[in-house]
Q: What sequence folds into this?
């Protein structure tokens, strides 16, 4: 996980994206290209990204001709990560009372995932 930001449900992901990218810019300065789904399309986001750095955004959209399930390039990475984090029972339901608590539990789930992988592959 490169960055994490939880916000209230009245803020669209497209409007929260610049704040997230601003928060990771100093730690990961070589990251310049963002893959996003159709919910992030629009000039408003592109204008805000130009103000905070040299970001390029690539919108991955589903084809109008597609019927049923279709694997989209790069989008599966995010969906796979959500599935991995969804295995943590605490994250199965949104019951946290504060944003800080929600962020903490997501980080704990991610740390758990990474440490298990390190233990599995690091000591052979």
A:
């Amino acid at each position: 996980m490169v960055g994490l930001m939880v916000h209230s449900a009245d803020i669209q992901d497209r409007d929260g994206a610049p704040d997230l990218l601003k928060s990771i810019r100093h730690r990961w300065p070589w990251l310049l290209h963002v893959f996003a789904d159709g919910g992030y399309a629009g000039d408003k986001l592109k204008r805000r990204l130009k103000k905070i750095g040299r970001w390029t955004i690539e919108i991955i959209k589903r084809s109008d001709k597609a019927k049923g399930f279709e694997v989209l390039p790069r989008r599966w990475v995010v969906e796979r990560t959500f599935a991995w984090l969804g295995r943590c029972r605490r994250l199965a339901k949104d019951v946290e009372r504060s944003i800080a608590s929600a962020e903490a539990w997501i980080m704990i789930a991610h740390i758990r995932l990474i440490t298990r992988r390190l233990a599995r592959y690091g000591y052979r």
About this structure: The first helix runs from residue 13 to 24. The mean pLDDT is 85. DSSP finds five helices and two strands in the chain. The chain has two domains: 9-64, 73-123.
